[in-house]
Amino acid sequence: YMGVQFFCIEKKNKMEKTTTNDQTKNPLNVLRRALELESIGNDEFRSKSLWRPFRARGVFGGQVIGQALASATRTVDAKFQLHSLHCYFIDRGDPVVPIEYFVSRIRDGKSFTSRSVRAIQRGRVIFILTTSFTINDPNTALKFQFNMPEVPSPASLPSREEQFLALSKNQNLPIEVRNEFEARLAQPFPIDMKFCDGDFLVSHKVSYFSKQRIWMKTNGQLSDDTRVHNCVVAYFSDYSLISTALIPFGYPNKQLTMIASLDHAMWFHNSFRADEWMLYDIECPVASEGRGLCVGRLFREDGVLAVSVLQEGLFRFSKDTSYNEITNDQQNKKDNSNTNINTNVKTNNNTNNNTNNNTNNNTNSINKNSENN
Question: Does residue 158 have a pLDDT over 80?
Answer without folding.
Answer: yes
